[in-house]
Amino acid sequence: MATLIPSPPAFDNTLGALLIGFGASAVAYGMFTIQVYTYYRRYPSDKAGYKALVALLWILETADQALIGHCVYYYSITNYMNIAALFGKPVWSIILQMTIGALVGTVVKLCFSMRVWRFSYRNWWLTGILMLLTFGQMGLAITFTIKSFELPGFPDLVNLRVVGSISLGLGVINDMAVAAALCYYLQSMRSSYSNADSMIRTLTIYAVNTGVLTSACSFATLIIFDFMPNNFIFICCYFVLSKLYAISFLATLNTRKIIRGRGTDREHGKTTSFQMVTDSMQRTINIPMQMPMPTIQEDLDYIEEYQKSQTRSQDSTHSSAPHYAIGW
Questions:
Q1: Where are the alpha helices (DSSP H) in the chain?
Q2: 46 pairs with which residues across the strands?
Q3: All structural domains of the chain with their residue ranges
Q4: What pLDDT, in 10s, does the model give residues 148-160?
Q5: CATH code for 11-260?
């Protein structure tokens, strides 16, 4: 008996979605590459660890974009007018792309979790929960990858709806939790530092914008995957998701100069940490903390200039105040 082939799919939400996703991800990859170039040019003396991390993200995103290109080429050129390919076993590149995308998200989320750890004065409970969500999502992504290689055809992807939905859901929760935690601790600091309110407001806006952008894309992918698992629209959204995580991380690094006027870290000197608020800012109200963080001594002349531009009537006093260093 001849094998029955399902009715021909609509190319708009299959090959069309792949093509749109490829174009959008290519634009996002270009933006990310420009940010990488800007970072190395603006901070030539940044810590080697941060330089290596940026290089790692760029390599992963390059591999990710190459896999996306192979996937689009396979379905649109290699299998031109071969409708059966859309119902056959998923090509290996589209499966590995999901894994690399999840890996990029994991790296960025771990960095943002450490950012929360610094701003929360080493709150290990909060940081631990964020890291647990991050590693949980990565574990589910690996499970999704292994199961996807075992699928006999693309329509069977619906059987992995639970694993995929939980993984994307954890990503949404993680992004929103990071943004909420940063906003909470930044707002607490507004009452503690008399000369840094405008900078704190700017940092809050950046935290909200980066969290909303990635969580919105993750949530859109989740909804589309749950309600339309038999087309490629959710894949289109996922193509862009990892790029948004990488862009948000590089934007955080590159805007250090804009936020502080001269840069969070010295652009032509060796840096030791990402500091956004330091002991040079006059502390007026004690805020709850779990553990004081010792300050790493370095040249912080830009803080003095910032204070003078904000209030010229204040004298630089309280030199014996306790020292704290808040992370980037």
A1: 15-42, 48-73, 92-119, 124-149, 161-190, 197-227, 233-254, 256-260, 301-310
A2: none
A3: 11-260
A4: 999 988 888 888 9
A5: 1.20.1070
